[in-house]
From TrEMBL:
GO molecular function: alanine-glyoxylate transaminase activity; L-serine-pyruvate transaminase activity
Amino acids binding substrate: 346
Keyword match Transferase: yes
Ranges of residues in domain Aminotransferase class V: 70-336
A Pfam family matched in the record: Aminotran_5
InterPro entries associated with the record: Aminotrans_V_dom, Aminotrans_V_PyrdxlP_BS, PyrdxlP-dep_Trfase, PyrdxlP-dep_Trfase_major, PyrdxlP-dep_Trfase_small, SP_NH2Trfase/AEP_transaminase
Organism field: Acidihalobacter prosperus
Official protein name in the record: Alanine--glyoxylate aminotransferase
Domain of life per record: Bacteria
Entry's Gene Ontology BP terms: glycine biosynthetic process, by transamination of glyoxylate
Presence of the UniProt keyword rRNA processing in the record: no
UniProt record similarity statement: Belongs to the class-V pyridoxal-phosphate-dependent aminotransferase family.
Amino acid sequence: MTDSFHPPKRVLMGPGPSDVDPRVLEAMARPTIGHLDPLFVTMMDELKGMLQYAFRTRNALTLPVSAPGSAGMETAFVNLVEPGDTVIVCQNGVFGGRMKENVERCGATPVMVEDEWGRPVDPQKLEDALKAHPEARTVAFVQAETSTGAESDTRTLVEIAHRHDCLAIVDTVTALGGTPVETDAWGIDAVYSGSQKCLSCTPGLSPVSFSEAAVARIRNRKHKVQSWFLDLNLVMGYWGEGAKRAYHHTAPINALYGLHEALVLLQAEGIENAWARHRRNHEALRAGLEAMGLSFVVAPEHRLPQLNAVRVPEGVDEAAVRGALLDDYGIEIGAGLGPLAGRIWRIGLMGYASNPRNVYLLLGALEAILAAQGHAPARGAATDAARAAYSAASDQIKAAAYA
């Protein structure tokens, strides 16, 4: 007979999933009720309102897709892209490539705007592509590229798209909750994310939000949406307004309890405070890593606070370092992808995992492991540098309070 599965306790500091807040895990263990139960419908409405808070939007069509972030991506594309369309896809990492795949599977033509991995999307390249393809109806790009830790200028890219009469699809899977996402202020038409990163929830849900212009396109399509499950014309009947809901699918009830609790926690902290916390912990981690002689792939002005792409020093076995972190310290970090495979580590400070304890834990462990491989940083220098960064941040907060 097979025994129950009991996973070990890990510290999740990779590109996702991130550590889950204990309150979220507790919420998911609550009694299951029906997905059309009036009390569950009330919770759905609360959840939608809190997602609007997280996305900084008043969009009525804001909901969690009952599947991971990849399904949120597909929801945006299959609903807004029709056969024969031209879509400008900006790629500066792995996930821009996945956007291209979605465009092709919708029967549309992708026009690629490519930038070096580790750099943000170049607005001028997008402008040039749109001038060369006036038939384009949609622009798609990743705000926070998980494969590199680079952040693109979403406001500017959306403005360019709108100037050329295109809707903008934006991937915020790694961004939401960790760095500003201003859906309404920036005019984003379709935005999707994931529950397992800066929202501190478990994997399996994908928050999405669509503007009025996007909803109008969905309702006026010439072709049926190719996915029945992700067809928002149908899903709207279940995630709409009021007590009466049309059955569409059996929602992942307990997972939605968890997302509800995660968003309660985000509201309690305040989203601006969450952004500041991620930035503060990033600066301490950065200081510690640089004190060990390590460097970053992304320039400081384009660097995500919640996802750090760190170069592997010459002569260091990057896989062995990750293995030692996991086996000896219970810490998970990520490897590089694509052209960065074997060349970088991806260190996440997302959601509940973004805290000083994890920063100090990782720096101490990494310092010891690197020393064992012959890369000999000064003992204690990393944690001292992180401590100084936290002290400086605390002084700035106090100064601002008294200003």
